[in-house]
């Protein structure tokens, strides 16, 4: 088992585009409504290539390997990376209470505990202005939430 780290920074309006944050699913049938066909085509074209965070954390594993920011065998190493990501952006968090260093340390330690039992971690923060920061750690080989998804690096 290992863990992949993902990070995304972008406009909140892009993050809100849920259609491209979901995998396409099953192809529509011949009798499917036009809006279902259009949604499927859009998701099939956009989901695999966009760096936007997926709705379900495990679906990061369906993204191209180029979206991986780091890979670690040990949960502690992955948690340290998460802590660095949070510290890097903390001064820009829109909510002052979320900037608290003690809080950030608790989040990083909780992430390590979750990874130790095979869980995933996904955190997001609004930054000053209209920017959103997303960071995730995804357990791989296997992933508990989506054991059928192969490792993007294999």
What does this structure look like?
The protein has 154 residues and is of the alpha+beta class. The chain contains 4 helices and 4 strands. The chain has a 4-stranded antiparallel β-sheet. Strand 3 and strand 4 (131-140) form a beta hairpin. Helix 3 runs antiparallel to helix 4 (101-116). The radius of gyration is 17 Å and the shape is globular. The two termini are 13 Å apart.
Fold blueprint:
Layout lengths: L1 E10 H4 L18 H13 L23 E3 L2 H15 L11 H16 L4 E6 L4 E10 L14
Antiparallel strand pairs: 1-2, 1-4, 3-4
Helix pairs in contact: 3-4
Biggest β-sheet description:
4 strands, antiparallel
Parts with pLDDT < 50 across at least 5 consecutive residues = none
Terminal CA distance: 13 Å
Q: Kindly state the mean pLDDT as a whole number?
A: 95
Q: Helix- and strand-based class?
A: alpha+beta
Number of helical segments?
Answer: 4
Whole-angstrom Rg: 17 Å
Inertia-based shape? globular
The side-by-side strand order for the widest beta sheet comes to 2-1-4-3
Q: Tell me roughly what share of residues is in helical segments.
A: 25-40%
Strand content: 15-25%
Q: Which sequence of SSEs, written as H and E, runs from N to C?
A: EHHEHHEE
In total, how many beta strands?
4
């Amino acid at each position: 088992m290992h863990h992949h780290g993902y990070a995304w920074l972008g406009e909140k309006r892009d993050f809100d585009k849920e259609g491209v944050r979901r995998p396409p699913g099953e192809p529509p049938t011949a009798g499917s409504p036009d809006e279902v066909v259009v949604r499927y085509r859009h998701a099939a074209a956009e989901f695999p290539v966009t760096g936007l965070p997926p709705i379900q954390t495990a679906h990061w594993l369906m993204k191209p390997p180029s979206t991986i920011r780091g890979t670690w065998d040990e949960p502690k190493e992955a948690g340290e990376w998460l802590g660095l990501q949070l510290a890097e952006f903390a001064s820009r968090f829109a909510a002052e209470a979320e900037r608290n260093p003690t809080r950030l340390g608790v989040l990083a330690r909780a992430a390590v505990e979750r990874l130790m039992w095979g869980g995933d971690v996904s955190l997001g923060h609004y930054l000053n202005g209209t920017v959103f920061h997303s960071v995730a750690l995804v357990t791989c080989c296997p992933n508990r939430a989506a054991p059928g998804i192969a490792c993007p690096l294999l």
